[in-house]
Design a protein that fits this description.
With 107 residues, the protein is mainly α. It has helices spanning 6-18, 22-40, 48-69, 76-99. The protein has one domain (20-98). Keywords: Membrane, Transmembrane, Transmembrane helix.
Length: 107
């Protein structure tokens, strides 16, 4: 991307410099986790650190799932959408597991 608002062009160039390695997955995961945290949390307050860690876990999950399924993630948009989908999946599954009430023990 060479044309557009200066901040957006610089932001996209940052992702060009990151490449496809672990650092890029972590950065995509942080942004996707923060966005997924805003989308999924209503009642519970989730901090920036926990949202970022869930996002990184979701991004790693999504990148490995795409690689396993043979889906090629070429381009920043596809990588971010995969990281966001993985982050949403981790947040939703984690929220369901935490909300599950323990069954009463028979006494």
């Amino acid at each position: 991307m060479d044309f557009g608002p200066v901040q957006i062009v610089q932001f996209v160039r940052l992702f060009d410099l990151l490449g496809d390695g672990w650092v890029a997955i972590v950065v995509y995961g942080i942004f996707a986790g923060l966005l997924a945290g805003f989308v999924t949390t209503r009642e519970a307050k989730v901090g920036l650190l926990s949202s970022s860690l869930l996002g990184i876990a979701g991004a790693v999950l999504a990148f490995f799932a795409c690689r396993w399924l043979g889906i090629e993630l070429d381009g920043h948009g596809k990588r971010f959408l995969a990281a966001f989908a993985g982050s949403l999946l981790v947040a939703i599954v984690g929220g369901r597991l935490l909300r599950r009430k323990p069954e009463p023990a028979d006494s």
